[in-house]
Amino acid sequence: MIKRHENYKELVLRLAKTDFKLRYHGSFLGYVWAVLKPLLMFMVLNFVFSSIFNFRNSGTPNYPLELLTAILMFQFFAEGTTSGMNALIAKAQLVTKIYVPRWTIILGSTLNSLFVFCMNLIVLAVFFFVYHITPSISGILMFIIYSFLLYVLILAFSLFMAPLFVKFRDLSMIWEVLLTVLMYASPIVYPLSMMPEYVQKIMLFNPLAFIIHFAKQGLISDAFTGFDNFVYLILGVIFVFGISIFVYKRYEKRVAENI
């Protein structure tokens, strides 16, 4: 049993590394795109909302740092869920020709996005240094916890959607639209404080918005949510993950025939 789990661990890591290499294979800048893509997005949005809408001087002095932190976390979520959902289709030959547990393919795809996210955190650390902001130990710890919870959400979504996507290919188009909705329904390009209080409460029911908001608040302003709200978030993530496992087990057996 232990040997089998060791083999699965090696397989998952090998799949993740292969995906990471293939993702940038043939491009001129190669792995630089892992950092450059969110950085370019940050530069455009920072110019628009700092210079034109003047968010930096309207009660959010550290707006560029908040924006970059939020973009990196949202990009992690968007790319992780998209690659996780497409994992079984992308590895169709592996699914149909040899037997490997399907969950290892999905897990490997999401780990690839985690690798990219960790690379981007180096850029985030540089920006904190440039802006002379030093996060507290508790802020860093909570950021790590929120990042882990975000990854669990990514994995839950991927386990839920990957076997369904094999049969219903339109799901990718629907998810692409929903990601755009989620981006503007979460405090990424704007601070949550600019919304009316009742709207803030509604928005924080969205786990993605909750995680992004308090992750950046903890890092930059050393501000944290109440213990009760934090416990509710953890229970909600566990509940979502449990449902994803149930759906995955129900539809996983038909994956090979649907491909």
Describe the model.
It is a single chain. With 259 residues, the protein is mainly alpha-helical. It has one domain (2-258). Helices cover 78% and strands 0% of the residues. The chain is built from 11 helices and no strands. It has helices spanning 2-23, 32-52, 63-90, 92-97, 102-130, 137-167, 171-184, 197-203, 207-221, 227-251, 255-258. Helix 6 runs parallel beside helix 10. The chain is globular and about 55 Å long. The model has no long low-confidence stretch (mean pLDDT 85).
Compile the SSE list and pairings.
Blueprint: H1 2-23, H2 32-52, H3 63-90, H4 92-97, H5 102-130, H6 137-167, H7 171-184, H8 197-203, H9 207-221, H10 227-251, H11 255-258
Concise description?
This protein is mostly helical. The protein has helices at residues 2-23, 32-52, 63-90, 92-97, 102-130, 137-167, 171-184, 197-203, 207-221, 227-251, 255-258. Helix 2 crosses helix 3, helix 5 (102-130) packs antiparallel against helix 6 (137-167) and helix 6 (137-167) packs antiparallel against helix 9.
